[in-house]
Specification:
466 residues; disordered N terminus; five-stranded antiparallel beta sheet; alpha+beta
Length: 466
């Protein structure tokens, strides 16, 4: 699940806060609405029928996809070229990836918000003024330096690790939480907080404040080393990676990309960046077990699809990748990263990156299912409803489309009306487009009713040259 409908300065806009609603307008990937939808009660009950009935494994679905998994060599080459161009954009771009004036305005807008803290009390005006002053916006931006993440970290809308909630009971939906940055990820530093604890950085998919201890500056020679040559993709989720200085080990998510330096009996040698004197990067060679990574990019085969996807199935949902987890768009982005297939970070940007999308909004339920089954390509087609993104993975024994996604909750009927009760799912799962149908969904809330578009990744490749 996602929380963005438009890529805006600071990473996510006001529309983003209401965007990622899975099946219901309450507590999906944002706080419950203030229009009456926020009064639903939360229940923890036995799993929905889809979870009990559908095998929560990728291997069978990938096997069933058969030859449809094959990607034309020309298309694979184009996908890999697109991936490398985008992944390294913070180092290669000569201009800001976002308008600095919009970023500055967005931070001021956030500082005007009426936020609640973990103690369920509003943030006081003096504390907010202090926080905004620490942004030093009168001089923003003051820098334009290529950099690298020397540890996994989280982008923040403002330079603070304190969670900000829109309501006293809106946890865990911290509205300052932006995407997680992976180890060795390319960055560009634009500004420093007044106290020097935070740096405002750009990634290719977002921008925000990152703790300065997690960032180091790279020079042109280091960029050449990091960009050129062979690379390794982490294929075991949360693999331990040492920093080469003997004082830290980081958990690297699937999709972390590291320069390959060598291979021995049972190990890979990779280059990992760490912060040295003056905040400059030092590249150190470290060894990782051979079974936690593979040469980048992985082939798009049924075996590799199962290897990556099965590790992600059943993981708890994590709003904005809090607690080292994933939401809907992070799930799909990380799934495709080891294959060298580029996806932006937000649901709307992900579907918007695919040409020739099939429009589903005004079609009936039966027609939608028929079109998805006929036109969708398993493990290549994305299904979108505003605020939520899913991967089409095939059909069940009744011919209904199946999707892989990170699901927060559904909304089921109550006897006294259509307001409904929130029924938790809360993890990445394979379902139909009507999960929880057997419980009596509130009309208009199913994914099948709300899905508006389908796009296929290979459609980016265009026609093969003669």
């Amino acid at each position: 699940m996602d929380r963005d409908s438009e890529r805006v300065p600071g990473g996510w806009g006001a529309a983003a806060r209401l965007a990622c609603i899975l099946l219901l307008p309450v507590a999906c990937a944002g706080p419950p609405r203030k229009d009456g939808g926020g009064g639903a009660s939360l229940q923890r009950l036995p799993e929905i029928e889809d979870v009990r009935r559908i095998p929560q494994r990728m291997a069978g679905l990938a096997e069933a996809a058969g030859e449809r998994l094959a990607v034309d060599p020309h298309c694979r080459a184009a996908q890999l070229e697109e991936f490398r161009r985008n992944f390294h954009l913070p180092w290669s771009s000569k201009t800001h990836l976002e308008d600095p004036e919009k970023s500055r305005g967005f931070m001021r807008q956030q500082a005007r918000g009426k936020w609640f803290l973990v103690n369920k009390r509003r943030i006081t005006p003096p504390l907010m003024r202090e926080l905004l002053d620490n942004c030093a916006l009168d001089q923003f931006p003051t820098r334009n330096d290529p950099a690298i993440a020397v540890a996994p970290g989280h982008l923040r809308a403002l330079p603070t690790s304190m969670p900000f909630y829109e309501r006293a009971d809106a946890a865990p939906f911290d509205m300052l939480s932006y995407p997680q940055v992976k180890l060795n990820e390319p960055l560009r530093v634009l500004h420093a907080s007044r106290d020097g604890v935070w740096l405002f950085v750009e990634t290719v998919y977002s921008n925000g404040w990152l703790e300065a201890r997690d960032v180091a500056l790279v020079d042109p020679d280091q960029v050449s080393t990091l960009v050129g040559g062979a690379h390794l993709a982490i294929t075991r989720d949360y693999a331990p990676i040492p920093n080469g200085r003997g004082n830290a080990v980081y958990r690297a998510k699937i999709g972390t990309i590291l320069p390959l330096a060598g291979r021995g009996d049972g190990w890979w040698e990779v280059s990992v960046a760490s912060a040295g004197e003056g905040g400059k990067a030092e590249l150190r060679k470290v060894r990782v077990p051979v079974d936690v990574a593979a040469r980048f990019p992985l082939e798009f085969t049924k075996e590799n699809i199962a290897l990556i996807g099965d590790q992600m199935l059943g993981q708890p949902y994590g709003w904005g990748e809090q607690h080292d987890l994933r939401d809907c768009s992070a799930l799909l982005r990380d799934f495709f990263l080891p294959f060298g297939i580029w996806l932006p970070r937000t649901s709307s940007d992900q579907i918007g990156s695919l040409p020739g999308r099939l429009q589903l909004a005004k079609r009936g339920a039966n027609e939608k299912q028929e079109l998805i089954g006929r036109e969708g390509v398993p493990f290549q087609s994305l299904l979108f409803k505003p605020g939520h993104i899913m991967l089409y993975v095939g059909r069940d024994e009744e011919g209904r489309p199946l999707v892989f996604h990170d699901a927060w909750s559904i909304r089921v009927k109550e006897d006294e009306g259509e307001k409904g009760t929130t029924r938790m799912i809360g993890f990445s799962v394979i379902t139909t487009l009507e999960p929880g149908k057997e419980l009596g969904l509130v009309p208009g809330t199913s994914l099948l009713e709300k899905v508006t578009e389908m796009g296929t990744l290979t459609h980016r490749c265009g026609k093969r040259p003669e």
